[in-house]
Amino acid sequence: MFATSTVRAVVAATAAVLTVAGCSTGGQDEIERPGAPRVSAPTGFDLPASERYHRLATYPVYLNAQDPAEETVAEISTVTPDGNTVIYTDAAAKRIGFLDIRDPAKPVGKGTLSLAELGHADDQPTSVAAIGEYVLVVVDTTGGDFPHPSGRVDVVRVADRTRVRSIDLGGQPDSIAISPDGAFAAIAMENQRDEEATPPGGDEGDLPQPPTGFVQLVDLAGAPDRWTARRVDFDVSAARAAGLDTPEDLEPEYLSINSRGQVAVTLQENNGFAIIDGRSGEVSKIFSAGSVSVSGIDTAEDGVIDHTGSIPDTPREPDAIGWIDDGHVATANEGDWKGGTRGWTIFDATTGEVVWDAGNSLEQLAVRTGLHNESRAEAKGPEPEGLAITEIGGKPTALIASERSNFVAAYDVSDPTAPKFRQIMPTTPGPEGILPIPSRNLLVISSEEDDAEKRVRASVSVYGYGDSYAKAGGLAFPSIVSGDVDGAPIGWGALGALSADPSDGERLFTSTDVAYGPSRVLGVDVSTTPAVIDTSLLVTENGQPVTLDIEGLAARPDGGFVLAVEGEEGPGNQLVYVSADGSIERRVPLPVNVAAGLGGQGLEGVAVDGDSVWVAVQREVKGDPKGVVRLGRYSPDGDKWEWFGYQLENTSAEGDWIGLSEIAVHDGALLVLERDKLNGPDARVKGIYRVEMPDDTEAMSAQEAPRVLRKTLGHNLLPDLQATNGFVQEKVEGFAIAGNGKLYVVTDNDGLDDASGETQFFDLGPADEALKG
């Protein structure tokens, strides 16, 4: 059951049963339809190719390791002065990696350097920064002994990867930045707290946990053997006067240096930031980052995208920081133990005053583009962590990374008091490092989440800005978005079903699966780019919203829908007939023999064919021949089921399986979407197959092994998925041929559960051309 407040919120979001959200690629246009409220999509996604980043490549860093099964990540990255070699930290494997991007569309792994070769096998790299022929590798040697933090910076010659100098830092380091003129480096000495320790009079993980942190300034004049470090300490009284949390134990996190040599450094756990004169080493100002109340966000981890939540008077607790100009800094307000406000903020660096705050806009951007991470709703939502400032097209641009919703958003900050959204770029899970390379109009994003067993791999993504990279950019993101109702976007994600709208050739229907509830049928306008989810129809039973695992959806010509609902076990698989107003009319179970032979993967696709309904079963029914799955035909007249066999392709990959995802009736044949469970470079089988429509003599009852129908390949989807230049999606699950004759395909982002969260919606052009094999 859903809480009463949740039901009210969902019903309100689906006012008049059918809400219609108009969207234009330009931003403010509105559409009004009879019986529906006026709605709009205020965020435009129509940047011309000359004014946007294009994804060129996604390089999984396990390809740069000796053992693909081990955990290996890319966290913080830097680039050599010629812009050709990216160097990234791999804290999980305790090494740094090298990547050749001379051809940014085809990165080449150049191996790694283990910290065991520089010091000890337990050392961890926290950051890197390249200067001249060297890379400065910041190393944490604390080894879990929090009361006695230690670390160093190693100076490594890039050409032969040998260490030429090591400088003790006198504590546990985090990030590093080099001044624009190359005169000095600044290193944030965090001396981080032990999250499992309990200080006197506090709770577990609380501050203070001495020793306090500080900043090291490393002068870079001359050869490395002449480089010296200068320690900068913070005045406790000044930090207390500024209103910082636990000023006696400051923990510097991230820093940035402007053209004047001023170092801006965040004090995340203390909810503040400081400005240091890098030349003199004096702390000139300490500011509180302040608190803010944010409304219109999802704050309950309940499987429902509910925008009625709020967080009151919450500390920003900034992580990354960057200078927009010499008078303004921007912070990504990730939060830590007491805060996090799901957005980012611009401060006046002279007065510490807030000149602009993102409020709920970053989270709403995630919802609008299908990247809402429901499992983080109660915590810090999209959790903005990374931030970088660059210049593109002659305009200062802020790049904000969402650690939990897996994207980087770009904003024009020419006017720091009024940033303008420019673009959103998808990443693999956990984007951490944002590395603009202005000399080559490139952007490198490194991601830190890696799970070899689930095939969710950390990567380095490469984007190129402008016309020269447009051709290689593939499918633009987002390819599908939602419009707004009452100032909030229609929530969506996990789109595993697709159907044509029988009454409008430029429209489709889709639905979220069980990743988000309650269940809704969503209307999609495909006449725009990107496609727009502009209606939301709540599925109800006995007047109450219900949550179903909708894997297949077919619109009925006479109104209403047929849903293919997958159950956790076989008997839970059903055809569900839904009326045009969203209410369930009836449920049709599978025959007992078929249901009993199904496990957790059952009904996946459904199609209406006159008075009959076709279904696709994802995996083999127990007792059927190996590699043969069932296609079923249900006739409401007589409540009759007939069954046919479909021969799957073969797989040899360990842990892989192949199954069906969607079915449609077109041009006298059945079309079936078949896919493997692999993603990224491993993906092999993603295709739409044409199956000859069977005659009655080929049908079998539920008790008999089905006869296998003949199939031919209609369209190999792998090239389309690979052409996005992203991590090839595992779950290409929905397709439909609209009334306009075009073939559309959509991927299921799994609600960001063990997935990147990117939804790819393909317009493959005229179906008759696309399905020629």
From TrEMBL:
Domain Phytase-like: 491-750
Domain Choice-of-anchor I: 333-422
A matching Pfam family: Phytase-like
Protein name per Swiss-Prot or TrEMBL: Alkaline phosphatase
Species of provenance: Mycolicibacterium agri (Mycobacterium agri)
